[in-house]
Amino acid sequence: MAGLEAIAASLEGQELDKGVLGGAFSANWNLGAAYPAELAGRAFFTAWTRVVFVAIGLALPSRQQLVAVQGLDCASDAAAAWPSDAHVGSFVRLVDFEPACRQKAEDELPKGGLPALRRLTQVQIEQYRQAAERLIG
After folding, report:
1. Contact 8, 52 (CB under 8 A)
2. 3-state secondary structure of 91
3. Is 85 helix (H, G, I), strand (E, B) or coil?
4. Residue 131 burial (10 A CB sphere; 0-12, 13-18, 19+)
5. Which of 13, 30, 39, 115 stands 20 to 30 A from 107 (CA)?
6. Whole-structure pTM over 0.85, yes or no?
7. What is the pLDDT of residues 95-122, one digit of tens each?
């Protein structure tokens, strides 16, 4: 989260903290292996760490030879790996919710810029969090 928050802050005009990004990149690299195999959602979690990997990698000065579409592909893979019905808003499956999130972001960015995109992201993060709480009980 620290890495993603550093990226968000830089989009709002703050200087990008490369130290935080480097630490976040390293921590995220090993995070998938730390997820207990017996917990539901391991495939989703592993795929989601790839989304974060791409986001942080794109923000690093070297850009790690990544392109943004890789993050979108990873997000779709993660949503498809969700192990149960998610019941997010009007969507039953997370794999259907994810492209709707993407479309909403594409609609909001030209109208409201990065502040609108950040507000929308906060709402969508909360929806994902609620789905995760339902999954783990």
Report:
1. no
2. strand
3. coil
4. buried
5. 13
6. no
7. 999 999 989 989 988 998 878 888 888 8
